[in-house]
């Protein structure tokens, strides 16, 4: 053991403990806590490599002061007039209702452009944030349902309620390929090809000679249909909800839409219909000034809406035009995910804190959006190129954090700084933003920061200034290099996708020259902004007028509370899960960054499988399952029918051994590939990169192949035990055992990388196990809500015509189901409510629910009693025992998470309430975390899981007196309840309880046809799929994947870029190139020339 590293690590821990006692004791004041919480603990000094600036700790603390005050000032609306806020809410409602009306008319004119849902590109939390007017713009995704995956109505044999992730893939109506016979494409673009059959015949007029869908013709046709719809007045009050979007409950963001279609059957999809007032008077296009703008199939279709009503014109400033711009992005939803070791999240290491979230988010596919490549990029058949968009992943990353978290605050500060750069540089210039940098570029910078900094302490409130400066420095480097990498596709340049102003192009006469000139100007503006921030952090002048920290008590308290939680997290973790003696040196070195001696030397032996606890194995089993599902998702759509299919050479050695052994070997190879690939992509050492370019690469490849052969032969010689096949935790422990053996047998160049991977995996799982219970509970509660809603939909569909189900709705609310209580509250507010179901194409069921007069207590006739149905024959009771304290309430108070600053409750229009409160939208959105810290769940829940109630009591001392005592009493009750639970662990709750609401009048009780098949219970979906079965599905899909692979491949199961595959296809006779063909009977045939090897000699 390294004595110097151990001494440095222990000294660092003692220093932190001393700071914790001094700064956050029970008797310390709030001012001292806030002053200490403003200083970042991870960055004693910050070096900006591209800008060449050095920021010290006191400069970062002062910038934190300014940025926090800036965010507080931005969050406050500019005008406090309730009439203006009410008018703005009415404008948003009228805009969305009019758009829905126009899209329904478009579907009637041409059914190929029908869309059942209206997908927004901004989440609910993003839309609730304050935005200045009239700059408010609306962005929607027009999903072409006839071409998209998942289909609206899957095959009839898929009768399961919810997809458990292991069902057979539904055949998609589209196929895509990045490069091939249609020509070269720039990174980030693809081509959409309708499947052979009815889809190809229906879109025949939009296809190229090679069978690809022309983007320009599709956009032109949609713009023409939208123009016709704007001039058409339809009097139909009810629309066909099975294929068009006429209800407010069917407006949701793109990520939730893909989850809904892929996981919930059509007969179980429940939405809120329009209110009674909206049904009486649908929007009329003649009441607005409409203009449809598009540029010859380039970019989105823009709808300009002018408001003529005087009451709506109040929402706009007096000097602004009463026009709202609506951007409509025509897109096709595709299954799968782009392949490649450098794509996200393929390059994300398994030990990353957000790996579980990323793997789950990518299983819902992505979109091909009608956007052309920039003129300065080479592209063949430009008219058939579609841009790749990933809102399913991006929205989940955004919604994982709440508005007051450090990542979201970093994005808000960047938005404000970028919008003010040009105005501060030149007061005479009317422009207010950079030319080549848009909002998506800023969001990408924050996502890349989330990928880079993986420690929970790196995202404390005091690190706000550091992350803003690092993001600006990355933006400066990207502008100088003329390339800003996309999050998912690093080779895609997102800077060149920002459209330039026509006047700028006309000034220089050429798009390339205008692009370079704009880059130079934006580079100078970003550099000037960094210099001003450096001077602001150095100067001791008072804060600017209008910026005050003293008035923001809530901000000060939030910073102190979160800093206190983070400072106690490490000590609590070491108490409940101490470090093994063998790992003490390397772990302290890696996390504390104290001993430079140990950083340059060997980090020590990796953790053994016995050092992983059962909690860690449970977390790793969940992680491996999601990782395999993501791998299966990548390979699922990557083949084309009728073409010769090839598999990677790594899957050739599957002829010997049992299927279970080969499945386990696939898992082992995938994890090793991911470990080596992520280490190669995250390294920043110039010596390592230079060493890889030398001639020793071939010798290293030979050693790696020999090592791979030894590991595979060793695995095949030991058959899997029956207990391993039946227990996922035993399977994970066996996987760790073979990873440890592979590390011991690995060459020296790979041994250190695998040892570091195992060490980081142990350290990450050590923290994540305390977040996992709340993560599982949160998602299970959302799944239970969906199951109860599915039973309610089944009752509605099986009932007689005219049955409204109010009795079941009331009973469900009394049993604690959130969606029923929300519907009950909306029913009280509006007096009536409409449920819309579309179980099949052309079949729509509408159920109107209304309040009834409260019956007399004397009305106990047999007729009235017979109308009341027993609870045991309706919905099951919610399986949650009422507790004395809500842990979510503790999270809100101790974490001090602020709510969104949207419209006030009294100003929210009916359309907005029905859209955001729709049962499907609420249930799916409840799966998201909306948390504060950089973790899977809240630190408050983690401390409760650790039984560290005393830590929360110490942190509660920083609350104001009027909030402190209720929290302390709640914590005391929670501690007493948990002690009683441990004493009576065998107690089983029946889960039955009632919620009394005397203000709610009695609903109309009517007769109901009970569903005997449910039996009062709903079987929950089996979400714990077997890991080996997922391995087998992924392995079979990989065999069908078309790929040319070299015999000297460096990584196990590596995928070659498209350019490499095309080069190998032109010269397939080159030595070392093997082609695997998959015949119709399922047999593999190897065609190899001048190789002198057979399939058994390849790994």
Automatic annotation (TrEMBL):
Report domain Mab-21-like HhH/H2TH-like positions: 412-497
User: Where is there biased composition of kind Polar residues?
Assistant: 857-873
Recorded source organism is Cloeon dipterum
| Protein name (record) | Mab-21-like HhH/H2TH-like domain-containing protein
InterPro entries on file: Mab-21_HhH/H2TH-like
Q: Where is this region: Disordered?
A: 855-887
The UniProt entry, under Pfam families, shows: Mab-21_C (PF20266)
């Amino acid at each position: 053991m390294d004595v110097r590293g151990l001494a440095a690590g222990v000294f660092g821990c003692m220093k932190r403990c001393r700071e914790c006692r001094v700064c956050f004791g029970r008797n310390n004041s709030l001012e001292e806590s806030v002053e200490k919480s403003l200083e970042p603990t991870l960055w004693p000094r910050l070096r900006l490599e591209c800008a060449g600036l050095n920021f010290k700790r006191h400069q970062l603390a002062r910038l934190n002061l300014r940025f926090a005050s800036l965010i507080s000032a931005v969050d406050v609306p500019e005008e406090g007039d309730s009439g203006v806020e009410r008018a703005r809410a009415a404008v948003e409602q009228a805009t969305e209702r009019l758009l829905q009306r126009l899209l329904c008319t478009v579907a009637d004119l041409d059914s190929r452009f029908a869309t059942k849902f209206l997908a927004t590109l901004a989440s609910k939390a993003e839309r609730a944030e304050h935005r200045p007017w009239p700059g408010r713009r609306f962005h929607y995704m027009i999903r072409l349902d006839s071409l998209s995956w998942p289909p609206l109505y899957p095959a009839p044999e898929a009768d399961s309620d919810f997809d458990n992730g292991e069902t057979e893939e539904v055949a998609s109506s589209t196929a895509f390929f990045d490069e091939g016979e249609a020509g070269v494409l720039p990174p980030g673009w693809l081509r959409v090809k309708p499947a052979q059959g009815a889809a190809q015949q229906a879109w025949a007029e939009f296809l190229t000679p090679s069978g690809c869908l022309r983007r320009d013709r599709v956009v032109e046709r949609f713009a023409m249909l939208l123009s016709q719809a704007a001039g058409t007045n339809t009097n139909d009050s009810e629309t066909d909800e099975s294929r068009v979007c006429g209800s407010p409950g069917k407006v949701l963001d793109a990520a939730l839409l893909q989850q809904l279609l892929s996981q919930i059957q059509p007969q179980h999809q429940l939405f809120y219909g329009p209110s009674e007032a909206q049904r009486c008077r649908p929007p009329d296009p003649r009441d607005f000034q409409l203009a449809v703008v598009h540029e010859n199939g380039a970019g989105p279709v823009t709808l300009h809406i002018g408001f003529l009503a005087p009451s709506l014109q109040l929402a706009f400033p007096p000097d602004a035009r009463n026009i709202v711009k609506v951007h409509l992005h025509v897109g096709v939803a595709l299954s799968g995910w782009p392949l490649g070791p450098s794509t996200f999240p393929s390059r994300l290491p398994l030990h990353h804190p957000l790996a579980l979230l990323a793997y789950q988010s990518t299983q819902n596919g992505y979109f091909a959006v009608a956007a052309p490549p920039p003129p300065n990029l080479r592209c063949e058949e430009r008219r058939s190129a579609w841009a790749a968009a990933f809102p399913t992943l991006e929205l989940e990353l955004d919604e994982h954090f709440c508005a007051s978290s450090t990542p979201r605050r970093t994005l808000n500060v960047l938005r404000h700084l970028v919008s003010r750069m040009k105005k501060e540089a030149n007061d005479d210039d009317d422009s207010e933003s950079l030319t080549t940098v848009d909002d998506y570029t800023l969001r990408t910078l924050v996502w890349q920061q989330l990928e880079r900094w993986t420690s929970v302490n790196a995202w404390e409130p005091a690190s706000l200034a550091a992350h803003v400066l690092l993001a600006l420095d990355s933006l400066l480097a990207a502008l100088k290099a003329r390339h800003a990498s996309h999050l998912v596709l690093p080779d895609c340049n997102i800077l060149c996708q920002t459209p330039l102003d026509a006047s700028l192009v006309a000034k220089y006469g050429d798009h390339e020259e205008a692009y370079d000139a704009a880059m130079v100007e934006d580079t100078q503006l970003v550099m000037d902004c960094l210099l001003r921030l450096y001077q602001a952090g150095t100067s001791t002048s008072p804060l600017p007028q209008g910026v005050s920290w003293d008035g923001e008590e809530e901000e000060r308290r939030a910073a102190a509370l979160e800093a206190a939680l983070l400072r106690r997290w490490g000590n609590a973790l070491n108490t409940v899960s101490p470090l093994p003696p063998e790992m003490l040196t390397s772990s302290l070195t890696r996390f504390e960054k104290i001993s430079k001696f140990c950083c340059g030397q060997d980090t020590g032996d990796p953790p053994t499988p016995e050092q992983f606890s059962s909690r860690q194995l449970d977390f790793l089993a969940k992680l491996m399952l999601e990782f395999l599902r993501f791998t299966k998702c990548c390979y699922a759509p990557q083949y084309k029918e009728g073409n010769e299919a090839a598999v990677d050479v790594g899957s050739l050695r599957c002829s010997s051994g049992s299927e279970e052994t080969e499945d386990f070997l696939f898992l082992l190879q995938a994890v090793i590939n991911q470990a080596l690939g992520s280490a190669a992509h995250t390294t920043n050492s110039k010596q390592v990169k230079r060493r890889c370019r030398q001639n020793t690469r071939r010798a290293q490849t030979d050693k790696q192949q020999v090592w791979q052969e030894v590991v595979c032969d060793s695995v095949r010689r030991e058959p899997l035990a029956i207990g391993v096949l039946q227990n996922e935790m035993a399977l994970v422990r066996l996987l760790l055992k073979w990873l440890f053996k592979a590390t011991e047998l690995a060459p020296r160049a790979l041994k250190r990388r695998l040892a570091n991977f195992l060490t980081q995996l142990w350290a990450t799982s050590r923290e994540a196990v305390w977040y996992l219970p709340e993560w599982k509970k949160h998602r299970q509660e959302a799944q239970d809500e969906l199951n109860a809603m599915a039973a309610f939909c089944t009752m509605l569909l099986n009932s007689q015509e005219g049955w409204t189900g109010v009795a079941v709705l009331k009973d469900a609310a009394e049993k604690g189901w959130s969606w029923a209580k929300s519907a009950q509250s909306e029913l009280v507010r509006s007096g009536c409510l409409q449920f819309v179901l579309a179980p099949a194409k052309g079949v729509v069921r509408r159920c109107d629910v209304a309040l009834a007069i409260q019956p007399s207590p004397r009305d106990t006739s047999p007729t009235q009693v017979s109308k009341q149905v027993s609870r045991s024959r309706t919905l099951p009771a919610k399986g949650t025992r009422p507790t004395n304290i809500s842990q979510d309430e503790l999270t809100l108070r101790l974490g001090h998470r602020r709510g969104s600053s949207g419209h006030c409750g009294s100003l929210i229009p009916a359309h907005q309430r029905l859209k955001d409160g729709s049962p499907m939208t609420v249930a799916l959105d409840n799966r998201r975390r909306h948390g504060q810290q950089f973790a899977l769940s809240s630190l408050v829940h983690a401390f409760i899981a650790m039984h560290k109630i005393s830590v929360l009591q110490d942190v509660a001392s920083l609350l104001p007196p009027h909030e402190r005592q209720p929290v302390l009493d709640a914590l005391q009750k929670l501690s007493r309840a948990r002690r009683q639970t441990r004493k009576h662990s065998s107690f089983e709750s029946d889960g039955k309880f009632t919620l009394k609401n005397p203000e709610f009048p009695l609903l109309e009780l009517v007769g109901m046809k009970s569903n005997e098949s449910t039996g009062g219970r709903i079987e929950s979906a089996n979400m714990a799929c077997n890991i080996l079965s997922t391995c087998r599905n992924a392995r079979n899909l990989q065999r069908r994947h078309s790929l040319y692979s070299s015999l000297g491949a460096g990584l196990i199961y590596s995928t070659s870029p498209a350019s490499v595959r095309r080069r190998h296809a032109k010269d397939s006779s080159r030595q070392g190139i093997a082609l695997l063909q998959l015949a119709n009977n399922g047999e593999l045939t190897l065609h190899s020339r001048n190789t002198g090897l057979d399939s058994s000699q390849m790994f």
